[in-house]
């Protein structure tokens, strides 16, 4: 079981879960309730995490999410590289979807 997406906002995790389930990929959410229980505790390790049940679905799930998120929101075309792992994230992300690190926001340039 591998996490493919992690974000503090559970409603967004649940939305993406429905996207994957619609594609026939079995998923479950870890830490579903922790974001509301641990207020002010910013450790992404405790954020709700969308996981694939079967590891062989991992790459496909990531691709589906990438395609989906690239269509979602006008900032999404601007990709942000993760400072921790180097994974590229859609520009409307605040947290790396791969490792959960906080992404630098584009307030300056
Ligand atoms: Zn990362």
Record the SSE blueprint.
Elements: E1 2-6, H1 10-22, E2 27-30, H2 34-37, E3 49-52, H3 58-70, E4 80-81, E5 88-89
Zinc ion binds at residues 82, 84-85, 87, 96, 98-99, 101.
How would you portray this structure in words?
The protein is an alpha+beta fold and 109 residues long. It has a domain at 2-76: Alpha-Beta Plaits (2-Layer Sandwich). The chain is built from 3 helices and 5 strands. The strands form 2 sheets. A 3-stranded antiparallel beta sheet has the order 1-3-2, covered by helices on one side. Strands 4-5 form a two-stranded antiparallel ribbon. The site of zinc ion has 8 residues, from loops.
Would you list the SSEs in sequence order as H and E? EHEHEHEE
Helix content: 25-40%
Strand order of the largest sheet: 1-3-2
Secondary structural class: alpha+beta
Number of helices: 3
The CATH topology of one domain is given as: Alpha-Beta Plaits
Percent of residues in beta strands = 15-25%
Q: What's the number of extended β-strand segments?
A: 5
Bound molecules: zinc ion
* Secondary-structure arrangement, i.e. CATH architecture of one domain: 2-Layer Sandwich
Mean pLDDT: 81
Shape: globular
Which runs of at least 5 residues are low in confidence (pLDDT < 50)?
none
Using the CA coordinates, give the radius of gyration.
13 Å
CATH class bucket of one domain = Alpha Beta
Largest sheet: 3 strands, antiparallel
The end-to-end distance, rounded to whole angstroms, is 39 Å
């Amino acid at each position: 079981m591998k996490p493919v997406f992690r974000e503090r906002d559970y409603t967004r995790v649940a939305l993406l879960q429905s996207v994957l389930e619609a594609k026939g990929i079995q998923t479950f959410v870890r830490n579903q309730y922790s974001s509301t229980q641990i207020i002010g505790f910013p450790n992404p390790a405790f954020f709700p995490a969308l996981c694939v049940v079967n590891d062989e679905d991992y790459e496909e799930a990531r691709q589906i999410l990438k395609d989906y998120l690239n269509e979602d929101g006008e900032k999404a075309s601007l990709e942000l590289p993760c400072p921790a792992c180097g994974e590229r994230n859609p520009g409307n992300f605040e947290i790396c979807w791969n490792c959960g690190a906080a992404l630098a926001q584009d307030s300056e340039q």
